[in-house]
Write a structure and sequence with these properties.
- This is Polypeptide N-acetylgalactosaminyltransferase 14.
- This protein has seven helices and 18 strands.
- The protein has 302 residues and is α+β, with helices and mostly antiparallel strands.
- The protein has two domains: 162 residues, Spore Coat Polysaccharide Biosynthesis Protein SpsA, Chain A (Alpha-Beta Complex), CATH 3.90.550.10; 118 residues, Trefoil (Acidic Fibroblast Growth Factor, subunit A), CATH 2.80.10.
- The strands form seven sheets. It has a five-stranded antiparallel sheet, with no helix packed on it. A three-stranded antiparallel sheet has the order 6-7-8, with no helix packed on it.
- The longest helix has 16 residues.
- The N and C termini lie far apart (56 Å).
Length: 302
């Protein structure tokens, strides 16, 4: 737009986002609209756009201002929105307010790392400090963020502790329950194959958790045997019922184990790397060690 003509926005919008931390304006649901008996009532919003909000100066200072280790532009609205809600405040849209926001045709500043990498750095800082274990869904939705540098967040973590802020689960339950948490029904399932053999679990007398072996693939096409079917979850776990693949240590040739699934355990996180499965913490790939007495004694290692 080449003029300063005012363009009004809908009065029935609030801020929203998806797991990749992409901001969007969303319409109020019919239920939310029905509860609004007065069109001038404030609208509680899970998140704000960065260019159009006001905040009391003393409250802004108390909350820790902006995260000054973020770069240039992008993602700061997520960080301050999560921080406000989780640390005792609220965000409201006032329908009767009027804000003029001028969009330039191009950025008046440069992004030394490129605007995509800058946005990833900033949103990754947000996810690491404020989203708890739910940050894994951010990485699933934005895989390019894995391994990207995001700087030192210890000061922001300490700020969160000092302010006694609530968990991200509280935020999802009380502020933005409309954001669907991915579950295993949205995950991928199948076999883990090495040549003609498949990874399977089995019970061993005297051992509480299942053990892993390689065995000939069984079951029909597209319908593997239950003990050879694995689920790759949005939390980057490889699951079979209530147990997940983990490792005993992060050293080379560490044995792969089946342990009760725990989202907070980084040693249970894997990613697909070409035709291999890579353990995220150790950066080693899943492989087998063949014993001299044959297949029955094979062990899974990273």
């Amino acid at each position: 737009m080449d003029t300063f003509a005012y363009v009004a926005a809908s009065a029935d919008l609030r801020g929203g986002f998806d797991w990749s931390l992409h901001f969007k304006w969303e319409q109020l649901s019919p239920e939310q609209q029905a509860r609004r008996t007065d069109p001038t009532q404030p609208i509680k919003t899970p998140i704000i756009a960065g260019g159009l909000f006001v905040i009391d100066r003393s409250w802004f200072n108390h909350l820790g201002k902006y995260d000054t280790a973020m770069d240039i532009w992008g993602g700061e609205n997520f960080e301050i929105s999560f921080r406000v809600w989780q640390c005792g405040g609220s965000l409201e849209i006032l329908p009767c307010s009027r804000v003029g926001h001028v969009f330039r045709k191009k950025h008046p500043y440069v992004f030394p790392e490129g605007n995509a990498n800058t946005y990833i750095k900033n949103t990754r800082r947000t996810a690491e400090v404020w989203m708890d274990d739910f940050r894994l869904f951010y990485y699933s939705a934005r895989p390019a963020a894995r391994g990207k540098s995001y700087g030192d967040v210890r000061g922001r973590v300490e700020l969160r502790k000092k302010l006694k802020c609530k968990s991200f689960k509280w935020y999802l339950d009380n502020v933005y329950p409309e954001l669907k948490v991915p579950d295993d029904s949205d995950s991928q399932s199948g076999v883990i194959r090495q040549r003609q053999n498949c990874l399977e679990s089995g019970k061993v007398e005297g051992q509480e958790t299942p053990v892993l072996t390689l065995a000939p693939c069984t079951g029909a096409e597209g319908a593997p045997a239950n003990n050879q079917e694995w689920v790759y979850t949005h939390g980057q776990q490889i699951r079979q019922k209530q147990h997940c693949l983990s490792v005993s240590t992060t050293f080379p040739a560490s044995q792969v184990l089946m342990l009760p699934c725990n989202m907070a355990d980084g040693k249970q996180r894997w990613q697909k790397s070409g035709t291999h499965l890579e353990h995220l913490v150790s950066r080693f790939c899943l492989d087998s060690e063949m014993a001299l007495d044959g297949m029955d004694s094979s062990r899974m290692l990273v």
